[in-house]
Specification:
Layout: E1 11-12, E2 18-21, E3 24-27, H1 39-43, H2 46-49, E4 60-65, E5 85-86, H3 100-109, E6 126-131, H4 142-154, E7 159-162, H5 174-185, E8 189-193, H6 199-203, E9 221-226, E10 244-247, E11 251-255, E12 259-263, H7 266-283, H8 289-298, H9 319-324, H10 351-366, H11 372-394, H12 396-408, H13 410-414, H14 428-444, H15 447-460, H16 470-477
Helix pairs in contact: 3-7, 4-5, 11-12, 11-15, 12-14, 14-15
Length: about 500
């Protein structure tokens, strides 16, 4: 039998397979063909929550991200295309070119029981796409993010999801803090990803796992990622500023070209929480942001050390329990402000490693970010960074080999920089080292990661370029002129 959206008054009679309507047991099924692959929904008890409410179209959840594929069959009935906006382009269509925002939107509120794809956490809620990222692989101006937050509040969104951010050891932005306060004071609940470890940092043993901005601010619910074993996903950032965790590893959702894809990241955990907040407000629209935050913290499934712990916060998101929990006399959360009153550990200084980081940051900003092909590869890197970080954190040999390769390839990558006048040839030895590393990294990741990394490697055709000048190889690969881009951007798109 197809899934039925049961109205209030329906009573549960067992642990999840039957409900009673008018005295008659009715089996509850969901006809989205890939629903059984959505392990995260079972972990957060979304199925049980849907017996209480499936959300309301009166509750709008703003997705501040790379945009949303507006024509996706599992999203097009849920998207507000009247108020969507592209802030970098100053246009009123927030279509997605990268896939990240589309993935986030599907987790929040993909259409459910339409015999397509997947189910969303808040199936009846509305999605407001707000694009703040430039072309694929680019960052987002802090002013655009702040303006999008205020815009969402002015358009009466009740929830904002921010699956983005920048490292906690970067300068705190009061502009962003002020926007958060503006939305909060209008009754908007703001949910944000805690951040992911950077694979390059991991390779050199200097990963900073501190909760990132804007999740780090007060008045923002900071969400880390859990895995199917109910422990912190290895890439997930954590410290005393973390509120709770939600499933964020191997999460299936909507993607570009009317497709679906599994991804890892706190970016996938945050919209789980945003969707549950949508359910909570659909049931009781009078809940304040402070009450929502307190309910989420007190209704979790406890993980790890009893009560709060830095790795999983207060525990694992529990959708059904959140709908059944009430609180009273909750004071407002303190305003978001800079600096955030928490110690942020700094990476240990090492001159040799610092020099390598300078090379690779310059490669990102002055070479990859300046071409369409480079932007494509950066977008894939950002998308798969949590998976890569997880592989390096759990495979010592691959972490060591990755660090060694980055050291060995420094001269070749330096030669690509615009300031370089060097002529460096691609050696057979370096090619063989890279080829073996790509093969073994692909074998250690899931199918999505393996497909992406293998496709990129094959597209480069470096096997036929051994002995050629590396700058000539790169220039021949991407003849397109540099695209336009913003000059101020967040250094990390959290995936």
């Amino acid at each position: 039998m197809d899934y039925q959206w049961f109205e209030p008054g329906t009573s549960r009679i067992d642990s999840g397979s039957l409900v009673r309507i008018g005295g008659k047991p009715v089996q509850l099924t969901i006809n989205d063909p890939r629903f059984n692959e959505q392990w995260g929904l079972a972990k957060i008890n979304a199925y049980d929550a849907w017996f209480i409410t499936q959300g309301s179209p009166d509750i709008t959840i703003a997705i501040i991200d790379t945009g949303v594929e507006l024509a996706h069959d599992d999203l097009k009935q849920k998207v507000n295309t009247v108020d969507d906006y592209n802030f970098p382009a100053n246009t009123d269509e927030a279509n997605d070119e990268s896939g990240h925002g589309t993935h986030v939107a599907g987790i929040v509120a993909a259409e459910t029981n339409n015999q397509l794809g997947i189910a969303g956490v808040c199936p009846r809620c509305e999605i407001l796409p707000l694009r703040v990222f430039d072309a694929p692989g680019q960052g987002a101006a802090i002013d655009n993010i702040a303006n999008a937050i205020k815009y969402a509040a002015d358009k009466e969104a009740r929830v904002i999801n921010l699956s983005l951010g920048y490292a906690a050891d970067q300068a705190c932005s009061q502009t962003l803090a002020d926007a958060i306060n503006y939305a909060y004071e209008k009754g908007v609940v703001i949910v944000a990803a805690s951040g992911n470890a950077c694979p390059v940092d991991v390779a050199f043993g200097r990963a900073n796992f501190s909760v990132a901005y804007p999740a780090r601010f007060d008045r923002v619910i900071a969400v880390g990622a859990s895995n199917p074993n109910d422990t912190r996903a290895s890439f997930s950032s954590y410290d005393a500023m973390l509120d709770l965790v939600a499933p964020g590893q191997g999460i299936l959702s909507t993607y570009l070209n009317n497709s679906y894809k599994s991804l890892d990241g706190t970016s996938m955990a945050s919209p789980m929480v945003a969707g549950v907040v949508g359910l909570m407000l659909s049931r009781d629209a009078s809940l304040s942001p402070a009450k929502v935050a307190e309910i989420l913290r007190t209704s979790v499934t406890d993980l790890g050390t009893s009560g709060f712990d830095q790795e999983t916060g207060w525990g694992l998101l529990n959708a059904s329990q959140a709908l059944l929990t009430t609180v009273s006399n909750i004071a407002d959360l303190p305003p978001a402000a800079c600096p955030v009153p928490a110690e942020v550990p700094q990476a240990m200084a090492d001159p040799q490693t610092d020099q390598l980081f300078t090379i690779y940051r310059s490669l990102r900003d002055t070479v990859l970010a300046q071409s369409a092909l480079g932007q494509k590869y950066l977008a894939i890197y950002y998308e798969q960074a949590p998976t890569l970080a997880s592989i390096l954190l759990t495979h010592d040999d691959l972490r060591t080999r990755t660090a060694t390769f980055l050291q060995n390839a420094a001269d070749e990558f330096s030669a690509l920089l615009p300031s370089s006048t060097q002529s460096v040839m691609l050696s057979q030895e370096l090619y063989d080292e890279a080829n073996a590393l790509v093969r073994d990294l692909a074998g250690a990741g899931g199918s999505s990661f393996a497909s992406d990394i293998t496709t990129v490697w094959q597209e480069l055709h470096l096997d036929a370029q051994v002995g050629s000048d590396v700058k000539s190889i790169w220039n021949d690969l991407q003849p397109d002129p540099p695209p336009s881009q913003s000059s101020v951007y967040l250094p990390v798109l959290i995936r």
